[in-house]
Structures are given as structure tokens and as C-alpha cells.
User: What shape does this take?
Amino acid sequence: MDFLDSSFFQSKEHSQRLPTPAEVRALSGDEKFQPPPVIVEHLNLLVKFGPCVTIAEAQCLWLIRRILGDKVPVPEVYGWRVDGLEVFIYMQLVRGVRLKDRWEHLSAAEKTSVCGQLCGMITSLRQVKQEPSDQFIGSVNRQNPQDIIFLNMPAHGPFSGIKAFHDWFSSLPQRFLPDSQKFQDPLRPLLPDDGPITFTHADLHQGNILISQHGPPQILAIVDWGQSGWYPDYWEYCKAAYTCSYSGEWRLQWIPMFLAPRPDEHVAFAEYSMQIGAV
Assistant: This one.
């Protein structure tokens, strides 16, 4: 797939084609299972590739940029390729620094500004909604949820609704027990089956937020949408808390500035995640 209306193909300077998968591999020279992205400076291009990369991530980037524009900044996607077992996503090289690399050098006022920007972006992201008559839990292209906590679980989904997803999620810790040994789960009531389904980044940590390198911190892009999809509305908070220190300042002071804490749901989420080995 090539997005011929993207800036890459519209620019006279970028009239040449995108690198082939073989060319990207040659530039990488990295045989890791999850190789780092390849940067092609003169094309203003970043190529994310590997067997764990999905077309759904490219579709998500296209969707967010098309619907929300600059309200939720993401790299512009130029196209994708599938070669063997690997997916290659060609996207804009965003020239910023990771929030985690600048965070300790920011003042309290600047940190508050960043969290305020994130709050506005999350609010905008929640404007992306499913058809009321066709709701589901899963990836943007209607496949099973791509969250990393399910990496070692048998693929399952998409789910017809929140209850079906919760019943499956809560069953995972007891999946190997015979029926005679299964017990009534005291945590299951903490997961509400009547909440909204929202479009969720599902990996919102400081390493996935790119900001300006100098001056007042401005968020340039939110990246790494590989786990994104449609989840219960509490999922964004639980995953943001999952990616950082339990008793750290980021979780206790700053995350609540852009994501409403969901303590009950987090208790169940954290316990289930631990029991299935997703720690």
C-alpha cells in the first residue's frame, strides 16, 4: 500500500520510490527478532519493521491523522509492505526527543504544560467512536487485541462487547485448572461491563511521547501505536500505570493530570496481568 496523497509522494524532492524491504534490511544489518527502526535521513523517513509489526499499526496512524489531524500528532504514514513474515511501515521521521530523556530537566510548570497537552490529546482521541450498533473490543482492523500483556496467550477476539472481553480476561489465570478446581473470582466484579468502549493507545509512557528538543516543551508526536485498538475506557489508565514504577512520581502525580485514575479496575488489571506472567 502506498498513500500517494502523502507528503512523501507529493514532494518533488521525494519523487523516488520507497526503499524495498530488502533495502531496508540491508540498511539495518540487524538480525534481532525485533530490529530497531531504520532511519533514512535524506528522505525524512523512518521504517518500522519486523515480525511483530502489524498492518493495524499503519492503519491506526492513517486513521488518527485523517480524522483528528494535528489534535493528536502522529507520524504521517507513507505506506506499508508485507514481505514474508515481516511488515514494513514507512512513516515520517519526527525530529524530536523522547519525553523520558528531557523530563528531569523540565520545571514543574513545564511538566504541567506537557500533561495539559496530553490531556487535550486524550480528549480528542476519545472523539473517535464506533458505530453504536456495531461495537467490539479488538484492533482497529477488527482483529484480536494486540496488547502486549496477551503476547503469550492464545489469540482470541475480537470480542462482541465489554462483558465478553472481561469474561475472557478474567478467565486467563484459571485457564489451566480443571473445572472442579476453579473458584469464584473475587476481582471480576471490579471490571464494569456497562462502560464505554474507547479508542486507546495502550502504551502511553514517556518513551512514546516525542517533544521539542529545546525551548518550552511541545509534544511533536505520540508514537508506537502497535498495541492500540478498541478497549474499555479504563484500559488507557491501567496500561499507563503498568508501564511505570508503582510508587513513582510519574504514576502518582503526573498521569492523573491527563488520565482519570481508575483504582478499582487497576486492582483487577494488575492482578490478572501478574497471574498470567505479563510483568
About this structure: Residues 108-125 form the longest helix (18 residues). The first strand starts at residue 38 and ends at 40.
